[in-house]
Amino acid sequence: MVFLNGIFVDKDKAFVSVMDRGFLFGDGVYEVIPVYNRKLLKPIEHLNRLQKSLDSVSIKNPYNESEWLDILIKLMSYSVSDDQSIYLQITRGSDTKRVHTYKDLKPSIYIESNILKTRTKKEVSKGYSAITMKDIRWDRCNIKSTSLLANILYSQEAKKANAEEAILHKNNVITEGSTSNVFLIKNGVLFTHPAGSKILSGITREMVLESAKSINIIVKEEACNLDDIYDCDEVWISSSTRGIIPITKIDDKLLNNGVVGKLWKGVYEDYLQYIKLLKS
Ligand code: PMP
After folding, report:
1. Could you tell me the domains of the chain?
2. Whole-angstrom Cα distance, residue 163 to residue 90?
3. 205 Cα–ligand 1 center, Å
């Protein structure tokens, strides 16, 4: 079952118009919300970010917070799985002509829930590789837009290189991953690019920063140079569906001799505790 424009329907019966501006232009925004034990992870934070994205592109939010929660809870109940990943998108809607400018349209709302396959601690603890690529995206990366062409190309390059992620750099500064936020540990201090228009400020990023502070890691929301990434103690990436992932190899260079760092372990444990609370 999926949710489309006010009704729950089978996915193979869910259709939108070819005139939908989401289809024609990628004119829409989205959210991905993880679900553990049929409980939404940080729903209010996700809905707040959705509101910000909608405001940035002048699309009216079709529902209030409690209406969203009712829809999401109902959608979750159709799933066979206790752990899910909810994908929610709102496009500007359909017009009669393909023109760049828009008028007041009825937004199209689509939500689906997929089974969330979480990686085991043992798997994650082996570490992952990443490649680096030049960040050629626009300067409104804080909008969680469905226009993801650049991110798609980066992810595909990472896949071709058998890497977990493409880490992006702009003007020699590390911004974020193609689908994640990036953290560097240098001499016990955690660095991550500051929130703003150059990155999508992740909900998991906030969790990482809170966890790090709770275990007395010094946190600096400051950008790092590209060179730092080959020469730091630990690199992590974070996203809603992947959690917090340690990177041990970047562009064929091993970090910390390919061994997962100890600060990652502390933050990851704290994150797991949070998930465990949802599971109990
Ligand atoms: N940056 C980008 C470009 C992303 O696509 C994502 C994942 N949606 C993130 C950061 C991480 O955001 P979150 O932790 O909210 O999933």
Report:
1. 2-115 (3.30.470.10), 121-279 (3.20.10.10)
2. 31
3. 8
For 254, left (φ over 0), alpha (ψ -120 to 50), or beta?
beta
Helix intervals (H) in 1-96: 21-25, 43-56, 65-77
The string of pLDDT tens digits covering residues 41-65 is 999 999 999 999 999 999 999 999 9
Q: Is 42 a catalytic residue?
A: no
| Neighbouring residues of 247: CB distance < 8 A, sequence distance ≥ 6 | 127, 128, 129, 130, 164, 165, 167, 235, 236, 237, 255
pTM flag (> 0.85): yes
Mutate to test the pocket of ligand 1, among 175, 181, 241 (most ligand atoms within 8 A of CB): 181
Asked if residue 211 lies in contact with residue 267, where contact means CB atoms within 8 angstroms, the answer is yes
238 in contact with ligand 1, CB cutoff 6 A = yes
